Amino acid sequence: MFRRLTLTILMSTTIPAADLKPPVAKIVPKEMTVLGDTRVDNYFWLRDRNDPDTLKYLEAENRYTEAVMKPTDALQSKLYAEMLGRIKQTDLSVPLKRDEYFYYSRTEEGKQYAILCRRKAVENAPEEILLDENAMAEGHKYFRVGNFAPSPDHKLLAYSVDYDGDESYTVHVKDLATGKLLADEIPNTYYTLEWASDNATFFYTVLDESKRPYKVFRHTLGSKENTLVYHEPDEKFTVELGKTSSREYILIDIGSSLTTEVRYLRADDAKGKFEPILPRVHETEYDVTHHADSWFIRTNDGGAKTFRVVQAPVNDSSKPHWKEVLAARADVTVENVHAFRDYLVIEERDRGLTKIRIQNFADDKVHFIDFPEPVYTAVLGGNAEYATKVVRFTYTSLVTPNSVFDYNMETHQRELKKQQEVLGGYDPTKYESERVYATAPDGVKVPISLVYKKGLVQDGKAPALLYGYGAYGISMDPAFASDRLSLLDRGFVYAIAHIRGGADLGKPWHEDGRILKKKNTFTDFIAAAEYLEAQKYTSASRLAIMGGSAGGLLMGAVTNMRPDLFAVVVAMVPFVDALNTMLDASLPLTVGEYEEWGNPNEKQYYDYIRSYSPYENVDGKKSYPKILVTAGLNDPRVSYWEPAKWVAKLRATNGDDRVLLLKTNMGSGHFGASGRYEHLKETAFNYAFVLMALGIK
């Protein structure tokens, strides 16, 4: 089906189904020399969105993908119908109490977006619709609400919207009594916004030219001038805003991959100055929660790689005044600390499992919330009240739908507030989940979470989908997804490889998979695939792999390293042009990610990144799997040209007839379609590709 490419570019308006040929990307050699190393990039031109050939090429790829996938139209429709049939389309979130109101969202059948509402916390109180996202999204290909922040007196709502998918949001303020918008409108803002106690002032962050949130401004309602309160000049750092659970302090969280700093301001002192809680120290991380006259500080200071918790006075939080609350432990990472008036709640990760630890301030007694399954995920949910004995958490596993619980910290009783309803008669007893371990080349045991329909015969004949990410210390915890049932019910084994680079086994797990240890991420994933095949859960001819963003880098790297291990690859918005991107400090995220990938302007990091960057290491001597690649034209995290260049080079370098598709969403960014039905269609498309590529009818 594929042919080796020439120096032309195909721009036909249609692609005849009877004569499918992929678009041909023109070759414009660009020579680049870095640290004495000269490389030639034939597809650098795709970075120029103003080049008329760029959009034409992406559109031609989309037409080609549509033509190749045309035979799966009925399958896509069937998958979509299955997935939609499991969802309660008219539904309601669990209301979150904040002062005298319950805030919640609801969905209505046939509508793409949520309706954001509230009711007063009294019996039979009428519903107030705060934002109808469906009405707001009319006429737009993409729509997403960023900030949603009611004022402390609940009379105003500050919210932000993005209509392009580039994650640059515009803030608006709504009078909730009249429903009218105030004149206040602020463009180019980012996630996080916090109100001062006066109900007339809020703080927000803005983006620099490389899409880095780098400044915090104070806005007073009705004012056309906004006051800069903090500027972070170091390009490795970003800023975001928060408020303590006590609501007494507004926080500026300043962070890079390795170093953090927190500045605070009393919420009732809107025009005051933000002061640092602790000075910034290279490679020292900390965050805080407030209680009475103390900060509770989670920190890795003093060599505490898995973090510890200390208590310090608000008026002087320097190290001589620290009191240790929870010491660092080798196998347990402290991930989050949340203070209520009477209890301190700590989220931990113990050998890969999430735990919730509760300590009573009155007597310092400690207990943990019990969970019923051996492999699960439990995290704190929305907790907006401070003077309460109830903590909300969410529980899920590969077979248990997302479940929201309210847990009484005094009586140790839990109340199930809502479990995700799976329509169509889902029976969790028909499925089995387990955790197994692969051995990496250096002897490290790599966890793999599995789920499949009971009755699986381990003879290597079952199809499987192996998912991975492995970056930024982000954990891929086992969670339920109803759309996955469309694979399990077709005999698939679904697996998550908990590889290094993530924090699935705590902070050290991340440290062992970044910078000059990044290849552990790839060899861990390869070991997971080899294990599944050796134990005959599947075989190489039946194994599909999937990952997105940094997980897309993973897909590209392991496909170059061991293409024989996989039959199918789905790489979503993949970070595959890693070397060129990390050499360009003008791009979003680049400088801030030197601590994750290394700075390639230094030779040791240049050589190391070059050795695994998927784009640089395409090998024409190898036979590659069938590959689907996705991109978002407005993506600020992984620029559209990374997947586009990778596909062009794969075709030009690898001349066999394996299926290779590029699908670019021309109206969205990193997260794909914003509407829930369109998002389901994207999932159905990806699954249809996997089924088609594996020959499953």
Description:
- The chain has 697 residues and is of the alpha+beta class.
- Helix content is 18%, strand content 34%.
- The strands form eight sheets. An eight-stranded mixed sheet has the order 31-32-34-33-35-36-37-38, with helices on both faces. Strands 8-9-10-11-12-13-14 form a seven-stranded antiparallel sheet, with no helix packed on it. Strands 3, 4, 5, 6 and 7 form a five-stranded antiparallel sheet that branches.
- Helix 2 packs across helix 12.
- The longest helix is centred in the last third of the chain and has 19 residues, at 676-694.
- It is globular, with a radius of gyration of 26 Å.
- Residues 1-19 have low confidence and may be disordered.
